[in-house]
């Protein structure tokens, strides 16, 4: 088979026709690639800048909140220390109402974040100074009787630099300071501690309290508490700028909300801040875990299709964290809008540039291409000696012209090789047209027609159509399974697998091709002159063999040679002795084991070799050919008979082979082995007998 240059040249011609469009496409691709890279770089830079800006804003917010929380904590401690010192130095007695009121009010006014200054006695009495927003204060004293508690409340208006009495009222109360956790723990403690306080004489108001015992002359007088209501924190958070729609939350270690921004929150107005983004803050806090809450972290979360940047930072109060939630659209939205406008502008510019390049390509490339097409016509006609190079100022056309000239030179050199597919493969691999080869492990197959000599004598020249059809079918199957057809020798076909393209499964491919050839011949309806279906014999073997360019400098053949090749040829002929169609060597069986169904036929010594080797009949592929995943039962009977035969138990072997024939009706190997066993049973062999059959012919 000759190399078909027409098909190659038509493909190249189609390529040359599309070069004009390719130039425009390359220009367009270059512009778009540059634009994409530039846009990506700009986007990354803008995104990084925007995120850095958001990070800076967040750091400023964290710093402000940290400062405020620290101030609250410090103010509470300072107020507690100041009042405690007055008690300890006996400057102020816990029961001196006038002095006590003055001191408590002064601390309440001087510390902006403090909501309560309270004192409780072990007998259950309670006194406090309490802010009522920014413009009002109240003094509260609770005294207990045997039956009920009474609360006296004095309200004061805050005026610049002073306070004015407003009114007094008395009312019953069920508040018992001695029942409160903070009081009981503070009374039993040695030093002040922080507590979370929910209920007050005025009702439920979430707060924190710095409370501790007051001892005078080593006698415990009661518990002093400085309390800050969460509403003070909520009002502070409302003063922070967390983007246009972002927000900040203070959350405790259990995920409970401490404060959300609310500008109207105070001791009179409970916090009613917007908490729709609070679930994201809690989700980030839960994901951070215990270790993550000890350091600042950032995460990206989504909710209802929108992305948010959530930042967590620990605050200087045990268990509190600041969570800021900012929609990504706030700092990336302008960037994305600008990017869309940039991409649109670049796209329009790229299209205009592509149109201009197309017009230029038509005028500049058309003439040089026509000359290149003329050289393609020479190649198509296989007038390779007429192909010339055409220099061009256009690098691409000069390269194309050079490539065509080099292709012509390559085709001229490799016309020695057949078939064409093999030549193309060798050209792709850069194999030079000179003798040489290498030792590789490959698989080789021989096929021929049973009784072809007599058939050709009977048919004469009428055998040509039959032979051509048979060779076409075998060739199609071999090529379809990745094989390399080596040569046709009359009715024989030689093919191999694993070269020139490496194939790790060359043995399996070879076996699959053999079964495919058998099916194709059976399905074709080819018959001899007597009307009998055409029968083929196949021999397969694998092993180390020399593969490469074998021949002379004038004529080369890419083929395989070696002992493993000779064995495959002998196995093809051995089918005649055993009445089989496909015999494979033990190396092939080992390489394809697990994917094929076989039976060991015998141990044979081929012509020219003394040592024997196992030969197998290829039955089918696992899971195909209607066989299933396991060999038929008669294969086991044959294997058992072969084992008895080799162990000189000829009578037992005879019974097994009879069982095979009983099940299959006719079986060439079983019939042959049965006859051997009968002869050996009748005349026992001497000690030199070996269970190896010698093939006396090639």
From TrEMBL:
<dbReference type="Pfam" id="PF02743">
    <property type="entry name" value="dCache_1"/>
</dbReference>
<keyword id="KW-1133">Transmembrane helix</keyword>
<protein>
    <submittedName>
        <fullName>Cyclase</fullName>
    </submittedName>
</protein>
<dbReference type="InterPro" id="IPR050697">
    <property type="entry name" value="Adenylyl/Guanylyl_Cyclase_3/4"/>
</dbReference>
<feature type="transmembrane region" description="Helical">
    <location>
        <begin position="21"/>
        <end position="43"/>
    </location>
</feature>
<dbReference type="InterPro" id="IPR033479">
    <property type="entry name" value="dCache_1"/>
</dbReference>
<dbReference type="InterPro" id="IPR001054">
    <property type="entry name" value="A/G_cyclase"/>
</dbReference>
<dbReference type="GO" id="GO:0006171">
    <property type="term" value="P:cAMP biosynthetic process"/>
</dbReference>
<dbReference type="InterPro" id="IPR029787">
    <property type="entry name" value="Nucleotide_cyclase"/>
</dbReference>
<keyword id="KW-1003">Cell membrane</keyword>
<dbReference type="GO" id="GO:0005886">
    <property type="term" value="C:plasma membrane"/>
</dbReference>
<dbReference type="GO" id="GO:0035556">
    <property type="term" value="P:intracellular signal transduction"/>
</dbReference>
<keyword id="KW-0812">Transmembrane</keyword>
<feature type="domain" description="Guanylate cyclase">
    <location>
        <begin position="443"/>
        <end position="572"/>
    </location>
</feature>
<keyword id="KW-0472">Membrane</keyword>
<dbReference type="GO" id="GO:0004016">
    <property type="term" value="F:adenylate cyclase activity"/>
</dbReference>
<dbReference type="Pfam" id="PF00211">
    <property type="entry name" value="Guanylate_cyc"/>
</dbReference>
């Amino acid at each position: 088979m000759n190399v078909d240059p027409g098909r190659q040249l038509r493909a190249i011609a189609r390529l040359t026709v599309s070069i004009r469009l390719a130039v425009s496409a390359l220009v367009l691709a270059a512009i778009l690639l540059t634009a994409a890279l530039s846009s990506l770089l700009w986007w990354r830079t803008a995104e990084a800048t925007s995120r850095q800006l958001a990070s800076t804003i967040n750091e400023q917010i964290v710093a402000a909140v940290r400062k405020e929380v620290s101030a609250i904590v410090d103010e509470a401690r300072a107020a507690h220390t100041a009042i405690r010192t007055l008690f300890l130095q006996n400057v102020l007695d816990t029961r001196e109402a006038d002095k006590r009121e003055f001191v408590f009010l002064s601390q309440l006014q001087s510390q902006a974040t403090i909501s309560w200054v309270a004192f409780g006695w072990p007998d259950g009495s309670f006194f406090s100074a309490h802010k009522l927003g920014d413009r009002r204060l109240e003094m509260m004293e609770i005294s207990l009787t045997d039956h009920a508690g009474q609360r006296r409340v004095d309200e004061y208006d805050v005026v610049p630099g002073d306070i004015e009495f407003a009114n007094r009222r008395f009312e019953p109360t069920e508040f018992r300071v001695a029942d409160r956790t903070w009081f009981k723990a503070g009374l039993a403690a040695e030093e002040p501690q922080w507590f979370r306080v929910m209920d007050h004489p005025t009702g439920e108001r979430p707060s924190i309290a710095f409370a501790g015992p007051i001892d005078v002359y080593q006698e415990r007088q009661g518990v002093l508490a400085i309390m800050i209501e969460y509403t003070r924190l909520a009002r502070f958070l409302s003063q922070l700028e967390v983007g246009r729609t972002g927000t900040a939350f203070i959350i405790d270690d259990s995920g409970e909300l401490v404060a959300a921004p609310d500008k109207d929150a105070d001791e009179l107005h409970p916090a009613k801040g917007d908490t729709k983004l609070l679930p994201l803050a809690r989700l980030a806090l839960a994901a951070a875990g215990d270790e993550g809450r000890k350091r600042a972290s950032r995460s990206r979360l989504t909710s209802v299709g929108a992305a948010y940047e959530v930042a967590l930072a620990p605050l200087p109060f045990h268990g509190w964290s600041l969570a800021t939630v900012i929609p990504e659209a706030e700092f990336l939205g302008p960037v994305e809008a600008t990017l869309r406008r940039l991409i649109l502008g670049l796209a329009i510019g790229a299209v205009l540039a592509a149109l201009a390049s197309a017009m230029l390509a038509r005028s500049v490339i058309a003439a040089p291409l026509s000359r290149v097409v003329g050289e393609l016509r020479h190649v198509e006609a296989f007038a390779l000696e007429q192909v010339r190079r055409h220099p061009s100022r256009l690098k691409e056309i000069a390269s194309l012209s050079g490539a065509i000239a080099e292709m012509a030179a390559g085709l001229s050199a490799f016309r020695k090789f057949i078939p064409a597919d093999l030549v193309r493969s060798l050209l792709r691999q850069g194999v030079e047209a000179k003798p040489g080869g290498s030792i590789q492990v490959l698989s080789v197959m021989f096929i021929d027609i049973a009784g072809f000599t007599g058939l050709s004598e009977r048919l004469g020249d009428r055998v040509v159509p039959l032979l051509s059809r048979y060779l076409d079918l075998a060739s199609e199957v071999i090529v379809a399974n990745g094989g390399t057809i080596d040569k046709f020798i009359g009715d024989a076909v030689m093919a191999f697998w694993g070269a020139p393209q490496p194939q790790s499964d060359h043995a399996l491919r070879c076996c699959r091709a053999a079964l495919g050839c058998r099916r194709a011949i059976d399905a074709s309806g080819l018959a001899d002159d007597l009307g009998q279906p055409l029968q083929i014999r196949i021999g397969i073997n694998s092993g180390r063999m020399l593969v490469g360019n074998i021949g002379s400098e004038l004529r080369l053949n890419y083929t395989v040679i070696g002992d493993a090749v000779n064995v495959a040829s002998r196995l093809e002929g051995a089918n005649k002795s055993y009445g089989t169609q496909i015999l494979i060597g033990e190396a092939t069986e080992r390489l394809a084991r697990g994917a094929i169904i076989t039976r060991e036929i015998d141990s044979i010594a081929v012509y020219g070799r003394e040592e024997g080797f196992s030969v197998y009949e290829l039955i089918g592929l696992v899971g195909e050919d209607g066989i299933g995943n396991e060999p038929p039962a008669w294969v086991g009977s044959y294997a058992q008979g072969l084992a008895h035969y080799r162990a000189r138990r000829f009578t037992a072997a005879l019974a097994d082979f009879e069982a095979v024939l009983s099940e299959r009706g006719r079986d060439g190997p079983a019939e042959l082995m049965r006859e051997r066993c009968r002869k050996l049973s009748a005349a026992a062999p001497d000690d030199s007998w070996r269970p190896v059959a010698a093939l006396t012919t090639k």
